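Re: How this chain folds, sequence and tokenised backbone to follow
How to read it: Take the token row as a discrete description of the fold.
Start of record: The labelled sequence and token lines come straight after this line.
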Amino acid sequence: MKLLRSTFVAFCLAFDHASGFAPQINSNSILATQQRLPISNVAKSTTSLNVGIHEVPDSQITEDERKKENMFQQILQETDDVRDYLGWLVDESGAADAIAEGGDEETSLGEVKADAGEVELFGGGGDAPTEATKEANEYKPVLRTDLGGTVLLSGTVDPTLLNILNNNFFGQDNVPNFEFGTIKALVEDVPSAKKGAISREARYGGLLDKLVIEPVTGADGALPTKDEMAGATSWIVRLSSEEATAALPKVAELAKGAEGLNNLVVMVDGHDATKSAVEGWDAVAEASADGEAFRCTLLTVGELYDGGGDGDFYHIGPSGGGSADAAAPGMSKKKAYRLLAHALALDCTANTALTAYEYSPEALEAVVAPYAEGEFAEIDDDGKELADKMADVKMEGRMIQAMRELGFAQLLELDVLVGKGVKSYKDYLANPPRPKKEITPAMSAQTKRDEEDERIMAILEASSVTNEAEEKAKAEKLRNIEIEGIAKEWLIKEYTLRMLAGTIDDSLSEKDFMVSAHDEALVEAEKTYVRVNSKEHAAEQKRSEAAKKGNENKLFYDGMPDLLRKKREKMVERIKEQYMDLLSQDELEEIILSE
């Protein structure tokens, strides 16, 4: 059962983190994969975009190929810079954890994965060793410590949200500070809500033991009454952009008057991120008294749609700072609710207003190009470099890509994007806190994977050399067999000719002759073998076959091989000497052609 359980966990974790960073980068491939950025656990690579470019002379490399090669190498370097930055974050988070008293408030990714060992039934369960679920990096996000045991949901019973809050299902990145004993949802249509929420995951993961779905009795739509707020320590609210302006002041009032409520997270969908923050949120922020009464988080997203996946390329950051890409249509419902749940877990999202959106096709095309600076910069009419308007988009794309290649869980990914962001990375580039070549734990783990890859490649190369040697030996053996056969035929023929010519003693047997002339026969056989396997011989045979076509019944014809002509001429002379008076010319030709 332990083996089966660990296999299930490994199989599901592979879906969260596995992918391949393809060396062949182009915008069409990204657009053709539903705007998905590659997710992988691959090592740093210096593989060229055009692998064959180094196998041909420089004179055959076009300027366009050379430009693509340079662009690809630059993108690899930019991604490696982000890996160095993430390695520094890993070191910094580890140092902070060592200084913190007790270290309970910060949790490593290894502990995040190790918690899977405590999941019961299909979720893992029992005494699974934590080593089986440890990750290479140990980035430690700061998590909220006051979530309590009861979370209240208003306006949603989304299955993705419920599964993450339940925190007890295999294949899911568990959230260490989600220890809710009660997940209470107040809805207007209880039967419909139960039908959508009660799934196989809910049954196997134990969600039904925690989930309580009740009808809302308040007069304000999906919002609860003050009495229904009783006992809730965390509150998640989903509102549409149309109802947010009127509902948010009521949310503020309810949260302020709820005894024991520590955290409030509100998601507003259908919001245009290019506009300012949602009207009415100021009332919530004021009611929270800068976190003294409760900690509040706003997450605005566009129109939600079914489908999509965890690997989609997206932006998340402070509200009101969205670019033109923020108007891109919609966001994956699964991604939005995952961000909503993780926003409740992280400390860096407290007392913030965030906007999340998927980038447009134009932005995705920009991501596959290097930063527009230096040799890759665009130049205006005056010869000056133009500022790269997509620089932040490219940097965020590199950060997401590098985190996924290094195996960062989605909770950690959100912590880096919100808690650190592009600004922190820019500060790092402007003033690196240490030499880039310093080995960090994450880079050390990457080096180990590199060494393992090199070991496997060495085995494959050795096997290839062995196979090549075996094939060469086999071919040499077949060649020697053919030469021996040719030599034997030469000896039989030569013995007869020399015996008729009287150049050898009549007492010499054929067997003795074959022994004495064996070396000479091998030399002649070698020459014959080389000749019959040459291109010239093949061309001669081809010409002979072409000349013979249509002349099968002719004794002599144009284009016939010289050797064949001489042979037939000799035969004609001999036959004429013996049967001059007995055979006609036609009979003579018939006899020769039958030979």
Q: What stands out?
A: The chain has 19 helices and ten strands. Confidence is low (pLDDT under 50) at residues 1-53, 101-137. Strands lie at 150-154, 182-187, 211-215, 234-240, 263-269, 295-300, 304-305, 314-318, 331-332, 352-358.
